[in-house]
Amino acid sequence: MLTSLMPWLLAVAILLAVVGALRRARLWLRGRASNVNVWAGIRAMPKRYLVDLHHVVERDRYISNTHVATAGGFVLASVLAILLHGFAWESKLLAWLLLAASGAMLIGAVRVAKRRQSPPDRLSKGAWMRLPKSLMVFAISFLILSLPAVGLLPEGFGGVVLAALLTAGIVWGLAEMFIGMTWGGPMKHAFAGALHLAFHRRSERFGGGRSTGLKALNFDDAQAPLGVEKPTDFTWNQLLGFDACVQCGRCEAVCPAFAAGQPLNPKKLIQDMVVGLAGGSDASYSGSPYPGKPLGEHKGGPFQAIVAREGKGLLDADTLWACTTCRACVEECPMMIEHVDAIVDMRRHLTLERGQTPNKGAEVLENLIATDNPGGFNPGSRMNWAADLNLPILADVKRTDVLLWLGDGAFDMRNQRTLRAFIKVLRSAGVQFAVLGNEERDSGDVARRLGDEATFQHLAKLNIHTLQQYSFRSIVTCDPHSFHVLKNEYPELGGEYVVYHHTTFMERLYRDKQLSLKDWVGGRVTYHDPCYLGRYNGEYDAPRQLLDALGIDRVEMTRSGFRSRCCGGGGGAPITDIPGKQRIPDMRMDDIKASGANVVAVGCPQCTAMLEGVVEPRPQVLDIAELVAQSLIEEETRA
Amino acid sequence: MSRNLARLHSSDEVSVTVLVSIGKHPVTGRLRRADQDARALEMALGLSDSEPRVIYAGPLNDSTEPALRGYLGMGVSELKVLRQSEQNDIVPALSGFLDNSPSSLILCGSRAELGESSGLVPYQLADALGYTLVSNVAVIEEVTATLAVVLQALPRGQRRRIEVVLPAILAVDTASPVARQVAYAKASRGFINCVVTDAAEDDATEQWHYQPARKRPKRLKIIKATSARDRFKAAAAKAEGTGGQVLTSVSAEEGAVAILKVLKEEGVLKT
Ligand code: SF4
Ligand code: SF4
């Protein structure tokens, strides 16, 4: 009976899966166009899955092994089942293989079930609690089905009862695994995920690459709406990417805003986009909500505003403004989903179309437009702090080796100490350098993260124009935000430069024996990785090597390197200042204290400001440039 | 943001016009929407859902247009321009236009940030149109078809409630709520429409020589306070007026005579 039923069951399941896939694809294709190389993507997909995706999944060994067994077993078992039972091939070898594949899948499924016995908060419950059972039912059904075929059980064993049970199991298994995959069940992640990997907007990320610069908005068509107002304003492959989410909550677990009790949870945000894509409410979402926002109050649809102009939409604006753009979520996401892109896209709409940048946002943007710096200081006073330093100005010298980009820290008394320290190091190493002086403008970083792409591009173009006037080999800056923008975001607007962060630069000077350093004494030091240097640019080593060169007793925090926790200062978060239960810098300072260090070495004016804003007593905050400057063995004064 | 702002009932047919000018950033001197004018527009936007009419009289060129677009960026779809050269006196153009297509409520800033910056335009306009003028308006509390109730800003945060019969010109003070953010997309999509008007040469200004204003040094008040409480009292104390007199219910002539007398005593008027 079952033998004659099997081809039909498989055919119906596959047919329904195909119908579901087409329907789902239609939802994605409502999005805006995107430049992707479709064929190259499809060709590269298996490698992206096996290498790049598993590279991230592997950070959780247990789940990576589990996933290999379950997914590998499932794919193999499905192909074999179709051959054996769909087309009724007779092959003992294939039957043995099917037995092995479903066996592997069963082992995987049991391990999934074990993880879900008392699942961590970050995992979604709901339909996801059903998944291990479905996996087991699928695996067991095909396992038992194969036993007679390989001769381990006599044909017709178990009689009608077993046959009926097997039929039920296979129907359940196929419904979850085949039909659920394209009709929106938990298995959707496999279908959408595979395509998402193929059509990813940032294909540079695969094969060990990095792509972190935001993508420029095109202002050519004055009538085109700017940014993302409704789900269909995302590009189609962004929508596809949202659908790939497995609700593993790894992003949630590392999000500083979520931990601080601000109304943001990157996982929920992605799920909200999925809700918007198909239309509906968040009532059936089964993970942690945005802190302080109960489920079931928000709803939306593909053509409805995500942030409602009145009442409640898919999500509230404060959710978007709580993000520090630290990229921790993107770094952790096994599906390589781009949360920050999505958040900034929606911020662009709020700022450019509605003029609704919260709190100090409007003032800061106005200052950037009127004075080229966020503080509204007189741009003619950018060099006042260095009146005694006799810095060569590019407008006078025209050419130099190193252009020192000061950043807006030049207006801040604390950061001026860092700049002075770094200049001391440069002079001691005999580096030929110059500054733009009053010709320098804000890099546009904050404007861009606040969604004001127009002001960003305006500032960027002015800076690029200024830089064109002079000749220099490289740019060095003490500010990772300027570093990132100059290095990764100006090229799209026509400015390509060799840019170094000052820690990288000092490390090179040290390696080239241009710095003579004595040991630094002052206790235990831990290093706080700035998001825009670490995750955005992959520089984790140079700062540490410098600390080691200073003979420092260096300790690491639990969350360091690519897992470093944000200081709370990025993405304009201190400007939009969305309230939470704790402050992000306080949490980071707790991390620092827990490491047992009495000094935290930093490499960013923003981190310095945030961490120094934590009430005393607390470890001292020193920029690496200051540590190096304190340890210079100065040659006898040349009078 | 919109403290006590009265919303117009749709049945009340009060047409609102906002007069705007080009502003100049106090630090960099870059052209921008003028702060007080933007506040006036903010007030008008808070009054009703229907769009106020926004009028600008003055030069229109590549450097002034982006500044004007700042007003469009606040959410109005059209800005009417009475195009004038830099030397023109804008009052005849404005009064001519407003005479032809009147408005019962005209809002504007108290003082321009560019040009003569005399603060006289609202007065001259009220005079030319025969409208009532209220200066230093901080809040509009209520508007009906014939009447507006406003709060006028006085020194040290004091407010005076004034009932004014429409039509009226309200000159808005910096004590009023801050203007909303400029939305780039609205600013670039809004329309700037020129209206043909006469131009009146202002001969007087031709000979004028302009130079940047200098901040006058502030006279330090020497406070000999020994405790924090004394220092606080000294800082918060009202400047004591010495001499002078308060005239109430006197005729306009008597009042004018008294003012003239003071001006002569102080040496402001020399005749
Ligand atoms: S970028 Fe950082 S703050 Fe923003 S959602 Fe991701 S983890 Fe949270
Ligand atoms: S967005 Fe990525 S990290 Fe977050 S829950 Fe989904 S798959 Fe996991």
TrEMBL record, chain A:
GO cellular component terms given for this protein: plasma membrane
Metal-binding as UniProt keyword: yes
Keywords, alphabetical: 4Fe-4S, Iron, Iron-sulfur, Membrane, Metal-binding, Oxidoreductase, Transmembrane, Transmembrane helix
One GO MF term: oxidoreductase activity
Top-level lineage group: Bacteria
Transmembrane segments: 6-22, 68-87, 93-113, 134-153, 159-179
Protein's UniProt keywords contain Membrane: yes
Signal peptide: none
Stretches assigned to the 4Fe-4S ferredoxin-type domain: 236-266, 311-342
Pfam (any one): Fer4_9
Stated name of the protein: (Fe-S)-binding protein
Organism listed in the record: Nitrincola tibetensis
From TrEMBL, chain B:
Domain of life: Bacteria
SUPFAM superfamilies (UniProt xref): Adenine nucleotide alpha hydrolases-like
Stored Gene3D superfamilies: HUPs (3.40.50.620)
Protein name: Electron transfer flavoprotein subunit beta
Origin species: Nitrincola tibetensis
